Amino acid sequence: MPLPRLVVPVLLMLALLLGGCASRPTPDHLELRQHIVETALGQLGRPYRYGGRDPDGFDCSGLVQFAYSEAGVIVPRDTRSQREAGKTLSLSQAQPGDLLFYRFEYGGGLHVGLYLGDGRMIHAPASGRQVSLVEVASPIWKKRYLETIRLLP
Q1: What is the largest distance, in Å, between two alpha-carbon atoms of the chain?
Q2: Domains held by the chain: number
Q3: How many Å separate Cα 25 from the centre of its chain?
Q4: Would residue 17 count as lying in a domain?
Q5: Of residues 127 and 23, more confidently modeled
Q6: Nearest CA to 80 among 119, 112, 45?
Q7: Cα 71 to chain center, whole Å?
Q8: Closest to 97 in 3D by CA, of 153, 150, 47
Q9: Residue 100: CATH number of its domain
Q10: Rounded Cα gap, residues 127 and 125, in angstroms
């Protein structure tokens, strides 16, 4: 038995409305990224401290963990785990809040910085230094670049 003419448009509208409820928009990731970047920038000039993860002093992965946690995102504490926690991208695909990983000859360890956009990164460099900004295209960083990791969608 055919449906009355008015029922079909009403059912179609109801299906569209319910479909919209089922696929609610995710949180605004641009705002989340901005919060992470602003938090990191607020740490400029803080001292480097091995194992540090608060404004009293940061190491590289501690700065990343702090900036993300202040935005409500839990990330691993150490560089190796942070590197394994996300999706690998090329540097040309980096967006603010993505992680940039580097390897230095001495110590053989990994170094991580937080990409800010416009070719800049914030990081906690080394003992005796402070949280600072660098250009990722500078020779010292280009030579040691490993990969970009995205933790956020």
Answers
A1: 82
A2: 1
A3: 20
A4: no
A5: 127
A6: 112
A7: 10
A8: 150
A9: 3.90.1720.10
A10: 7
Give the SS3 label for residue 30: helix
DSSP E strands in the chain: the ranges are 53-54, 57-58, 87-89, 99-103, 110-117, 120-123, 132-135, 145-150
Q: How many residues does the chain have?
A: 153
pLDDT at 100 over 60: yes
φ, ψ for residue 83, nearest 5 deg: -65, -35
Residue 16, classed as helix, strand or coil, is helix
85 within some domain: yes
Residue range of the domain that includes 116: 27-150
Report how far residue 58's alpha carbon sits from residue 104's, in angstroms, rounded to the nearest whole number: 19
**Residues labelled as active-site residues:** 60, 111, 123
7 domain-assigned: no
Q: What is the pTM of this model?
A: 0.81
| Residue 110 token pair | 């990994």
Mean pLDDT of 90-111: 90
130 occurs within a structural domain: yes
Q: Is 78 exposed, middle or buried (0-12, 13-18, 19+ CB in 10 A)?
A: middle
